[in-house]
Amino acid sequence: MKIGRAQALQAQAAGVAPHVDMNPVLLKPSSDTDAQVIVHGKAISNMQAQDYHDYKKVAMQAVLDSHQRLVNQYQVIMVEGAGNPAEINLREGDIANMRFTEAVNCPVIIVADIDKGGACAHLVGTLELLSASEQNRVVGFVINKFRGDITLLQSGLDWLEQRTHKPVLGVLPYLMDLQLAEEDAIQANQTIDQDDIRLRVAVPVFSQISNHTDFDMLRAHPQIELTFVRQGQRISAADLIILPGSKDVRADLELLRKHGWDKDIARHLRYAGKVLGICGGYQMLGQTTHDPKGIEGTIGSSKGLGYLPIHTTLHSEKQLTHSQGKLRLQADVHNNGIEVTVSGYQIHVGHTEREDGFNAFALLDNGQLDDGQLEGCISADNQVAGSYLHGMFDSPQALQQITAWAGADTDKVDTYASQQEHELDRLADACKAHLDWQKIHTFISNQTKSKHHD
Ligand SMILES: NC(=O)CC[C@H](N)C(=O)O
């Protein structure tokens, strides 16, 4: 079952369990022109933009079915649009914006990001490009991410209301360093304690990087300096290099070599640094990756970096599982002999075999995939490790143990879930203080009444 991170976060914010109906159709871009289409949590296929366009009629029905199920279950349903309601090239066949609101007859609030500039022009222009009935369902505007003196904005807001005859329902302030899970873009902003950096982590950014939210907890840790190494840059001095997941492991392996990152990794290991691979990054650290059916790219095999005694073959079925177990990683510091629990999720098409006699990364409680209960691998010299477990840093003990393995004694931090809860509270407080709830409640109760009359 797969839903977008944004929808899972919205469910957490609303205090309800996430469900696929909250994200009936999910597109996971696999390149600039195609995406994996996931309907009701199940992958349908990889589609080119044009094919998806034709598929939208089917997808719309899935969206409406989900909406109906939610209506039967909840009193208030808030739907977030995707992209922009005025993308005229995509309006025909749209399933995520105004066409959906017309189909289910719901009021609309348009939100503009003033940090990017041109917010008034954006709102007036967007409204202008909607049809008359769509315009009628817009009940107001919200300005988001405002910083500065609000009194200077007031004349602009007055103008906007006069011009459009729609109310501004609030101006939300820019919340500094809000650390909420992002969908596709890599988040790199960090607040670190410069005088107390204990671990420097470098993550090369592959073209097809996946699951970059694995790094959110490292980024949120005040004693860990996390650097995303972009293409064209070299990996500079660090304590730990982490190779992230990838949607096209063999192509990204080639990219890694093209940028000289293989040499940087070799040098880093000569200087006794540690290297960790997650999922696709784990596969790259092995001996070989075979793709006999061309699942991710061209048919063929690629030689890995050769640091771990593992062999991977890509299959057509994607495996998806949640796992929990005990870390096998031995820490040079902070090793008090206590077994550390690690948990995470696995999502991959690769099947990996570890050569006999080598250490695993973790012993899982109920391992089902690949090498069974013993998951992942650690090199004989204890310098290189790899695992399929996404989210391995989300539990504070595992984070502490892995950073200890990498040579640093870091303080224990909040769990990922409670850190997200704290950030959601910040956002909720801002919404409570700055939105016109009286008006918003009126829209909601009118809507509920009209539904009862339907
Ligand atoms: N999330 C990932 O890194 C996936 C790795 C690889 N593409 C696989 O599916 O096996």
From TrEMBL:
Signal peptide: none annotated. It comes from the Bacteria. Keywords: Cobalamin biosynthesis, Glutamine amidotransferase. Pfam families: AAA_26, GATase_3. GO terms for biological process: cobalamin biosynthetic process. Residues 200-397 form the CobB/CobQ-like glutamine amidotransferase domain. The active site is at C279 (nucleophile), H390. The keyword Cell membrane does not apply. Pathway: Cofactor biosynthesis; adenosylcobalamin biosynthesis. Belongs to the CobB/CobQ family. CobQ subfamily. Catalyzes amidations at positions B, D, E, and G on adenosylcobyrinic A,C-diamide. NH(2) groups are provided by glutamine, and one molecule of ATP is hydrogenolyzed for each amidation. This is Cobyric acid synthase.
